[in-house]
Amino acid sequence: MRFSTGTPASAPDIAEMVARRAVGYSLEAPFYTSEEVYDLDLDVIFGKHWLFACTEAELAEPGDYVTLDVGRHSIIIVRDDDGNVRSLRNVCRHRGSRILENPCGSVGNLVCPYHQWTYRTDGSLIFAEGQPPSFDRQRFGLKSVSVRTVAGLVLVCLSDEPPTDIDEVAAVIEPYLAPYRLQDAKVAHQIDLIEGGNWKLVMENNRECQHCDVGHPELLSAYFAFGLYAEGDDRPRMRAVLERYRAAEARLQSACAATSIPLGGHRELDGRPTGYQISHLPLDGAGISFGAAGAQLSRRLMGQIAVPQFGDMSLHLQPNSWFHMLSDHAVVFRAVPVAPDKTLVRTTWLVNADAVEGVDYDIDSLTAVWSATNDQDRAFVEMAQRGASDPGYEPGPFAAIEGDVEAFDNWYIERLREHLGLNEAHQALLTQASGQ
Ligand code: FES
Ligand SMILES: [Fe+2]
Questions:
Q1: Of ligand 1's atoms, which has the minimum distance to the CA of residue 117?
Q2: Which domain holds residue 269?
Q3: How high is the pLDDT of residue 225?
Q4: Is the same domain home to 62 and 104?
Q5: Ligand 1, closest atom to CA 112?
Q6: Alpha-carbon distance 159 to 364, whole Å?
Q7: Quick check: 271 pLDDT over 70?
Q8: Does residue 157 sit within a domain?
């Protein structure tokens, strides 16, 4: 099989690369390195799918806003005066100026800094100086962008025809998330990190924990050490881990039953536009949170969670987010591409709205594990980017433990295939022509 390398000698034939993509292998270099693929990703993946933008906790009061820049698009997500979450184009209807430049903040109205056209937080235009009496303000409200909330998570879609399977996905995940009351939570801390790697390397790295044994000593202390476990492994050390795990699992199951949270998980990471996975696993040690040996980090539990030992509710949403919900806090991750080899990763820590900093939690302890883990992951992603850019790189095979990475790549290729109109017959022709 012939592969394109990361050397930018000529524009890659994207359709050919999509058609010959080998299932079970990482992607060819240009998927991680080329400007053409990056532009296509912005258009097809980030322009047509539901993107995780922020949590409702970041929009606590009317006028609170977050801006999200995706390629050339800029979106305002704002809570309007009636308490609804709105998503608006950050483009003034006068002569097009950006209206808000900050990543987040709070406004009374949305006032364009150029000539002060003024919009309500629902996007309607209320002031435009110097226009004739015949001017119809109603025609010049800010353009809206599709938005929906799912148990406190705010998703936006730039397409005029957003994927409709979001309703089905929301119906599955809402019962898992609802008891955490993310819409009422408080933002304890937020960190933006630029990782020097393509957004898909960031997502692939997140979707596996094969690297955790050596890469994330702080994070690993909260989880059961199953990284090297094989079915039937009877070593005394693994037996002890398994026994602890079974006891913790039984505790978690009865806690879920008591709070009517569904048991088990769902995994549909590919095969649909809005790929997702939700799982709920017990934690090791004290079994509560990401503190040392599983210790609790915030004294007040989230929402309606009644017991501290409530494991890790983990959610993955394609294309750009992942979440860990613990009994005492939640950690929320959003990845947004900013260049072919750069990705902005925003991490947000949420706690119960009544939790008081310095009394119920402190920022350094709350954020220690994931700050360290993020930094370790950034280094992995940057190494992977350097490797994928080397002419010596060619796609390599996934291990069984990397099933979610493979599912992410499958989902991505499916989305491109659909966009490019590659049916099976067309694909076979391309594969033949490429000389495989
Ligand atoms: S461009 Fe916004 S008021 Fe003129
Ligand atoms: Fe990692």
A1: 3
A2: 167-388
A3: 74
A4: yes
A5: 2
A6: 40
A7: yes
A8: no
